[in-house]
């Protein structure tokens, strides 16, 4: 995909150069565990990470200051479309711009739309545009801006930079396209499900399907924990599913508050993505259980960690399921595909002793 095309005679978009830019972070590889992406910039370009509360997660600027770009990210409300994301950007950022063109496009495995505008500002004609897409509940906008007359000069650089954009870090729920049967039994299924082993846990009321490299770890009553054994225990990515009594909490919000409290003493802890969450395969009789989820980043022994916590309420019998996905954030990103597929393959079944 080329974010910058002569068909539009403009660039892919961003906040205007007129707003200024103060580089704060060295260039190179940037990983964002909250919104789930990686981007690599040339050593000569400047980068700035977002301030709290901004959807401009990463800003980039050329050495001469004449080319500017951003990765914007936002947690989308359920049902929000890429078209709505694009329109919200147009209305809030370039309401006075002239649309140069738009088209459907695909980049980094994500379908979306590319659009470009011309905008007169401070005596110059700016070329502004963006690739708009969504990955599950996260919306992304890849933006650039420069003077229209300099489009041809910076177009190759933008293409190289955004070609390194990698979505898919472990960021949030696993609700999309959950299989209805253990995928290990479906030879026509996703190749990434090949080699999965389905393990019934009727004492916990579910079937967990895992890759062979992931083994049960640190057994406890009413808890299933699997970890990737190639890593030492203190650096091991893990999925933990805990069955809690139905009267453990008054409601989901109270349960989520308690689970957040268990992380409150972690160094540099920050919470995000806190809210209701339903997941297709966490369902009773075809109806998704009510749920809640939140994310947390923190530091452990000097290493950045990431934890995603999900809490679901089962009605029959009355049980809470707490699911924790945790580990060093760089390792979680590396193993995100298989972790997601194991989560997607959980099946709720009747309890038995």
UniProtKB/TrEMBL annotation:
Alphabetically sorted, this entry's keywords are: Signal
Q: Where is the signal peptide?
A: 1-27
| Name of the protein | DUF1795 domain-containing protein
- Lineage per the UniProt record: Bacteria, Pseudomonadati, Pseudomonadota, Alphaproteobacteria, Rhodobacterales
């Amino acid at each position: 995909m080329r974010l910058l095309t002569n068909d539009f005679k403009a660039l892919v978009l961003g906040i205007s150069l007129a707003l200024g830019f103060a580089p704060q972070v060295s260039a190179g590889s940037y990983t964002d565990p909250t919104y789930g992406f990686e981007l690599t910039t040339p050593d000569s370009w400047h980068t700035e990470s977002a301030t709290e509360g901004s959807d401009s997660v990463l800003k980039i600027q050329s050495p001469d200051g004449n080319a500017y770009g951003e990765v914007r990210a936002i947690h989308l409300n359920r049902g929000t479309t890429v078209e709505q994301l694009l329109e919200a950007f147009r209305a809030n950022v370039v309401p006075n711009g002239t649309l140069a063109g738009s088209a459907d496009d695909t980049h980094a495995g994500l379908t979306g739309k590319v659009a470009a505008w011309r905008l007169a500002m401070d005596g110059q004609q700016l070329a502004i545009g963006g690739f708009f897409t969504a990955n599950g509940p996260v919306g992304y906008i890849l933006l650039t801006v420069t003077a229209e007359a300099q489009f041809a000069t910076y177009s190759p650089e933008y293409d190289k930079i955004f070609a390194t954009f990698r979505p898919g870090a472990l960021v949030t729920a696993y609700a999309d396209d959950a299989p209805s049967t253990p995928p290990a039994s479906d030879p026509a299924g996703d190749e990434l499900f090949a080699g999965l082993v389905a393990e019934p846990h009727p004492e916990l009321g579910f079937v967990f399907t895992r890759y062979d490299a992931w083994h049960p770890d640190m057994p406890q009553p009413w808890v299933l924990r699997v970890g990737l054994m190639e890593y030492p225990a203190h650096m091991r990515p893990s999925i933990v599913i805990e069955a809690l009594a139905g009267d453990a909490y008054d409601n989901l919000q109270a349960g989520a508050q308690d689970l957040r409290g268990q992380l409150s003493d972690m160094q540099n802890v920050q919470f995000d993505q806190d809210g209701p969450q339903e997941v297709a395969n966490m369902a009773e009789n075809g109806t998704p259980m009510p749920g809640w989820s939140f994310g947390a980043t923190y530091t452990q022994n000097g290493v950045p960690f990431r934890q995603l916590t999900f809490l679901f309420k089962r009605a029959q019998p009355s049980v809470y399921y707490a699911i924790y996905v945790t580990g060093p954030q760089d390792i979680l990103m590396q193993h995100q595909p298989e972790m997601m597929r194991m989560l997607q393959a959980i099946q709720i079944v009747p309890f038995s002793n």
